[in-house]
Write a structure and sequence with these properties.
This protein has 319 residues and is α/β, with parallel strands linked by helices. The strands form three sheets. Strands 1-4-3-2-5-6 form a six-stranded parallel sheet, with helices on both faces. Strands 9-10-13-12-11-14 form a six-stranded antiparallel beta barrel. The model has no long low-confidence stretch (mean pLDDT 92).
Length: 319
């Protein structure tokens, strides 16, 4: 999959008129994946290129920073997940105040028709565009009919009775409901960051941990989780990561009065120097809340019990 930094870089590239899937795609959840699947199939039907057209930063971060949600994916994670959908290219448009001021008709003419040369556009059921979000699905369909550009609107996707949306997933993550979020994402929720020096509490408790300086915005609520830790040599997405069974603690350890808020992951039955490396942690299941123990020995016993439970979980699931 080829990556283009902006529609200007793409303009005039590639043969024919592509099929374009448009969206912010934070999380690249199963609803987003369905939209991309439809674009890929339509492109195959038309013998055309399939393209994802997305935006960075999140439009709300530019238009109303105080209202911007905590994002589910970093830029690298989002592009990595889009790559897995097997389209031909992704265009990442820089979202600015100037870009946001475009009237819907101007956006359609300048970007969709002239720069992207789209033969068909695939959008979600809640799509809006143009200045003050004036453009609706009906606007887009009308512009498409007048210019000969096909428009496919993908309806809402549900997991059981739950609407699949980035907003719903954020709520689940914030509540520690990582198992439910996994069903909507189509994969475990993943937090990425860099291993940094910690305070050494883990080693003192006979459970050495890697302290993560987290880059991801949306994090699960404080607690203990069964996880899978991925070590990315050369940075996220540079190469296939090594994967390890793990258990992860988020929060302030209340047994220690001066403990700071931390994100620590412990590799089960594995010693590995990860200092300074890019690491991502996949959340599989919540174990318990953080708890205050009457003694360090009692905490140490509980940590051993948690690790045993995580080891059994990974053994049952194949790691």
């Amino acid at each position: 999959m080829e990556l283009f930094e902006g529609s200007d870089r793409f303009a005039g590239r590639g043969p024919g008129s592509p099929v374009v899937a448009i969206g912010i795609f934070d999380g690249v959840h199963i609803g987003h994946q369905e939209l991309m699947r439809r674009a890929r199939l339509e492109a195959q039907r038309r013998s055309a290129l399939s393209i994802v057209y997305t935006f960075e930063p999140h439009p709300v971060r530019i238009l109303s920073p105080a209202q911007c949600p905590k994002l589910l994916t970093t830029r690298e994670q989002k592009i990595g997940q889009i790559r897995l959908q097997q389209l031909d290219a992704v265009i990442v448009e820089r979202f600015t105040q100037e870009f946001a001021r475009q009237e819907p008709g101007r956006f359609f003419e300048d970007v969709i028709r002239k720069k992207l040369r789209a033969s068909c556009v695939v959008i979600g059921y809640d799509f809006t565009f143009g200045q003050h979000r004036q453009g609706t699905i009906e606007t887009f369909e009308d512009l498409g009919r007048k210019s000969g550009v096909g428009v496919i609107v993908v309806p809402a996707v549900f997991a059981g009775e739950t609407l699949v949306s980035s907003t719903v997933i954020r709520s689940m993550i914030a509540a520690g409901e990582v198992k439910r979020a996994r069903a909507l994402l189509g994969r475990p929720y993943e937090v990425v960051g860099e291993v940094a020096p910690g305070r050494g509490f883990g080693a003192a408790l006979e459970a050495k941990t890697a302290n993560l300086r987290v880059a991801s915005e949306a994090q699960p609520m404080d607690g203990i989780y069964i996880t899978r830790t991925l070590v990315h040599e050369g940075g996220y997405g540079a190469a296939r990561p090594s994967k390890y069974a793990s258990i992860t603690s988020i929060g302030v350890n209340p047994t220690f009065s001066d403990a700071a808020h931390t994100f620590e992951t412990h590799l089960i039955d594995m010693e590995l120097d990860m200092m300074g490396k890019t690491v991502s942690v996949e959340f599989l299941e919540r174990v318990r809340d953080q708890a205050r123990f009457l003694s360090v020995d009692e905490l140490r016993r509980r940590i051993r019990s948690d690790i045993d439970s995580a080891r059994e979980y990974h053994s049952r699931s194949g790691g």
